[in-house]
Amino acid sequence: MTYSHKASGNFDVASWSEGVVVDIDGEGITAGDYYYPNRGFTKAEMSYAYTGDIEGTSTLVYLIAYKADAAPVLGLERFEGSIGGHEGSCVFRHLGDQDAGSVSARIEVVPGMGTGGLETLRGEADLAIAGHSDDGYPFVLSYDIG
Fold this sequence. Notes:
By secondary structure, the protein is mainly beta. It has strands at residues 5-23, 28-31, 34-37, 40-52, 54-66, 71-83, 86-98, 102-109, 115-116, 121-130, 137-145. It has one domain (5-145): SO1590-like (AOC barrel-like, Beta Barrel). It has no helices and eleven strands. The strands form two sheets. An eight-stranded antiparallel β-barrel has the order 1-4-5-6-7-8-10-11. A two-stranded antiparallel sheet has the order 2-3.
């Protein structure tokens, strides 16, 4: 789909909490405070802080699969703030894949869940993260309002 506007910014992970939902084989690794199954899935709850043309905070819940190669990632994120100067809130749907060092996802605005100046927001973004960054991650949303 083609959109009339682009909003560019960065997001930082402000908080992260992850726990096992299903551990298929009872085998995995512990890293820091978290256990990751070799095969199974977890539920991660986090918050993001956005800066740039997209300014605000969000709460995100991911279901993350773990297996030997690319595994699915599903998420819903509620954003509150401004996009291109329009204040309000909206919900993003994440659908992607992850492996040991990277995440790629298609992010789409969920119609009918916006408020204020973002009530009629439509849009999408492609997310590609490779490794950890202390400087945040780029995010470019192509969008229309109205």
